[in-house]
Structure formats: structure tokens, C-alpha cells
Design goal:
With 253 residues, this protein is mainly α. Helices cover 55% and strands 2% of the residues. The chain has helices at residues 2-15, 25-37, 42-60, 65-68, 70-84, 96-112, 135-160, 170-175, 207-221, 243-252, and strands at 189-191, 227-229. A two-stranded parallel ribbon has the order 1-2.
Length: 253
């Protein structure tokens, strides 16, 4: 039963992201993950967390294989799963304090994935799945805060079952009352993909070259843009610490 719940947990976490973008998926995934680890031995918790992680990260990161090949894709998925599985190091119960700590640890692990492996890869943050419903909360609690809320409510639901069945819809009900600012007019948005010099996961070592490629591509197409969008690895160098990177960015802007 625990194995089935673990696999379903990873699957539902994955459904929260493209192409399905099922916003309730991470809630279900979190509830199943916590339920499958309640009052379990360390070995069983690790099995559950590893299965959930593999089911989550392998399909989630499949797109990266198109750019770096199958070996880096699977390597990243396995390492992300290894980090994800550290949530099994602790014993979990139905107590409210346990639910609270579970949500905190899940969020911390998610932040850690932005730093490791390969310099960090934050793809798959649960906090990115609720923009349609909790948009008004992002400026208050941030992406990490949204992750905490989703996982906390999920684990809480899983712990107390039917007694708090009304908890999960709360974020969606709250979203109906959050103020939205209407927008008018048009803006010119340019998305730039400068690419990398060669395929592989060591792009962090070629960060300055990647930055230059995006700067060159931008200067060719973004002459009258109101907004320029770069991919997440377009500038992996801190311009405040690297004068050359700062100069490239300032010149491009």
C-alpha cells in the first residue's frame, strides 16, 4: 500500500506542472506522501520518498534530455531524488507539530535543490504551481511560502482525514477575494534564447560565455522591446561581484 501511495504521490506532484498544470495535484501528492510515511520505519520511509521522488523528477525533467542528452537528464533526476529523500530521515506522525515540521523540511529541501546538484536546479518547486489561484499571496510569502502552505495543508488533511476535509479548498476560496489589478494597453515582449556553446551539465563553468550569447542575441532583436525575457540560466554570474558580467548587462540594457 505504501509503495502505491508513493508512486501516486510523485505522479500527482508532477501533474501540477506543464503540460497538465493541475493545481490540485501537489495537494494530493503532498497528502499521499505524508500519509505513506506516518509511523513508518526509516527503511520504509526511504523507500517511499525515493519512489515518490523518481516518479516526480524523471518525467518532470524529461525535457532537459532534449538539450543535454539522456544521461545528464537521469543523473539530475536521481540526484534530485536523493536530496528529496532526506525527508525520510525524520519520523512523522499525526501530531500537528509533526505536520508543521514536515512542511518546513519539505520547503527547506526545495530551496536546497536550488543550490545542488550542478550548482542548483530549482525546477519543480511546488510554489510555482499555484499562480492561478494564490497570486495575491506571492508578494507576501514568496514562492517558498506558497510551498509551505500547500504542503502543510496537504499533510494536515492526510493526518486528520475527513475531520478537516474542508481545509484543502480554503486557498482557492481565498483567491476569490484577493484584489486583482486590471490592466489595459499593449506591450512589446521579446523572448530571447541565446543557447549554449555545447551540450552538457557544466554550463555553469561557461556562464560568462552563455551571458554573452544572450546579450548578442538581445541586441539584434530587442530594439523597441518593453520587456525582454531571458531563460533562467542566461545570466548565472552575479553582476555585483563580476564587473565583466555587469558591463555586458548594462551595455545590453
Amino acid at each position: 500500500m505504501g509503495i502505491a501511495l508513493a508512486i501516486l504521490s510523485g505522479f500527482f506532484f508532477w501533474t501540477g506542472f506543464a503540460p497538465l498544470e493541475f493545481a490540485l495535484g501537489p495537494y494530493i501528492g503532498g497528502a499521499l506522501l505524508y500519509r505513506s510515511m506516518i509511523d513508518r520505519q526509516l527503511r520504509d520511509r526511504f523507500i517511499v520518498s525515493i519512489l515518490a521522488g523518481l516518479t516526480f523528477f524523471i518525467p518532470l525533467l524529461h525535457w532537459s534530455g532534449s538539450y543535454v542528452g539522456w544521461l545528464p537528464w537521469l543523473s539530475l533526476a536521481l540526484l534530485q531524488t536523493a536530496l528529496f529523500s532526506t525527508i525520510a530521515l525524520f519520523t512523522w506522525s499525526r501530531k500537528l507539530s509533526s505536520v508543521f515540521l514536515f512542511a518546513i523540511l519539505f520547503t527547506v529541501i526545495e530551496i536546497a535543490r536550488m543550490k545542488w546538484p550542478f550548482g542548483g536546479f530549482g525546477w519543480g518547486r511546488v510554489g510555482h504551481t499555484q499562480v492561478e489561484y494564490l497570486s495575491g499571496l506571492y508578494s507576501i510569502v514568496g514562492v517558498a511560502g506558497i510551498t509551505f502552505v500547500v504542503v502543510f495543508l496537504s499533510a494536515l488533511f492526510s493526518s486528520f482525514r475527513i475531520r478537516i476535509v474542508a481545509v484543502l479548498p480554503i486557498p482557492f476560496l481565498l483567491s476569490l477575494f484577493l484584489p486583482l489589478t486590471p490592466s489595459t494597453g499593449l506591450i512589446n515582449v521579446v523572448a530571447v534564447q541565446g543557447g549554449v556553446d555545447e551540450l552538457g551539465f557544466d554550463y555553469n563553468k561557461r556562464a560568462l560565455s552563455v551571458l554573452k550569447r544572450h546579450a548578442d542575441a538581445t541586441s539584434k532583436v530587442a530594439t523597441d522591446a518593453d520587456l525582454i525575457v531571458w531563460p533562467e540560466n542566461a545570466s548565472d554570474i552575479d553582476p555585483l561581484k563580476t564587473p565583466e558580467a555587469a558591463e555586458i548587462i548594462e551595455t545590453t540594457i
